[in-house]
Amino acid sequence: MKKKSAPAKRKPTGQPSKTRQEIRPAQKQARQPGREADMDPRPIYIRPHYRGSGKLEGEVALITGGDSGIGRSVALHFAREGADVAIVYLDGRTEKTDAEETRRLVENEGRRCLLLPANLEKEKACAAVLRRTLKAFGKIDILINNAARQFPQEKLEDIRGADLRRTFDSNFFSCFILTQLTLPHLAKGSCIINTTSVTAYRGSSHLLDYSSTKGAIVAFTRSLAMQLAERGIRVNGVAPGPIWTPLIPATFPAEHVRDFGRDTPMQRAGEPCEVATSFVFLASEDGSYFTGQVLHPNGGDFICT
Questions:
Q1: What is the pLDDT of residues 139-169, one digit of tens each?
Q2: Mean of pLDDT over the chain
C-alpha cells in the first residue's frame, strides 16, 4: 500500500508575507503625518496576489488622508477594483512626495488619480476639494473620511487647548463638514465610510483627545446611517487597531515604535493592506446590507460589541 506523504505545512492564517515585529528598529520622524519612504520596514499597502474583480468598476471615490498609510492602501485597492480616486493630503513637500507616489501606483492600475492638497480643518478647503473632484470626474460615489492627526500626552493637564482644537478640527469636524457638503451630490447606492479607531472602544490613556474624536465619529456614523437609509445611502465605519503607518513614527517615541502592536493577541502591528479590504467590502455590493456598522481589523486588540 502506497504510503501517504505528510501534508504540507500551511502558513499561519492572518499573517502578512512577513511578521514585521521582529525586524522593526526603533525610529522617529520629526513631524506629522510622517513620510512613508523613511519608514523601516516600508508598510505593505497591497499584496501582489490581490486580484480585483471589478467590484467598484466605474465608480469615483474621494479619500481624505489618501497619500499614505491606510488612505493609500484604500486608494490602491479601490483602483484595482476599477474605481477612479481623488486623494486629499496636507500641502507640504513630504506629503506631496507620498501623494505623487500614490498617484503613480493608482495609474499603474489603469485608473485616474486626482491629487488635492488641502487643509481640511478649514471649511473653504473642504468646499474646494469637493468642487475640484466634481469638475474632474463629474460625480462622487464613495466618500472616505480618513484624515487624522494625534498629539500623545500622558496627562489630561498636558493637553494644550490649541492641540485639542486642531485634533477635533482635523479628525471630526472635517469629516462632518465634508460629508455635509458632499451629501447633495451622492445618489442612491452611494456610500460613506468613516475611519474611527479601536481607541473609541477601549480608550487610550495617552491619546485622550484623539480617542474622543474617534468616539464622536462612531456616533456620527451610526446616527447618519439612520438618517440616510431611506435615501439608499449607506454609512459605515472601520476601526483599525495598531497599524504600521507613517503616523506612528511621526507621533510616538522611538522605543514605543519598536514595540508597537506587540501587546495585541496577535503580537504584531497590522499592515495597511489588512485594513483596506474592509473598505472594499463596505463600498461594494458585498456590503449592501451593512449600514451604521463598524468593522474592526485590530488583531484582537479589543473585542468590540
A1: 999 999 999 988 888 999 999 999 999 999 9
A2: 89
Q: What is the pTM of this model?
A: 0.89
CA distance 43 to 182: 31
Q: Tens of pLDDT along 3-28?
A: 444 434 333 334 454 444 456 778 78
Contact 145, 175 (CB under 8 A): yes
Domain covering 52-295: architecture: 3-Layer(aba) Sandwich (3.40)
For the record, the C-alpha cell of 116 comes out as: 488635492
Whose grid coordinates read 480585483?
52
- Respond yes or no: is residue 89 known to be catalytic: no
Q: Rounded to 5 degrees, what angle do the CA atoms 49, 50, 53 make?
A: 130
Which position among 45, 89, 201, 210 bears the catalytic label? Answer: 210
Domain residue limits, the chain: 52-295
Count the Cβ atoms, other than its own, within 10 Å of residue 112: 15
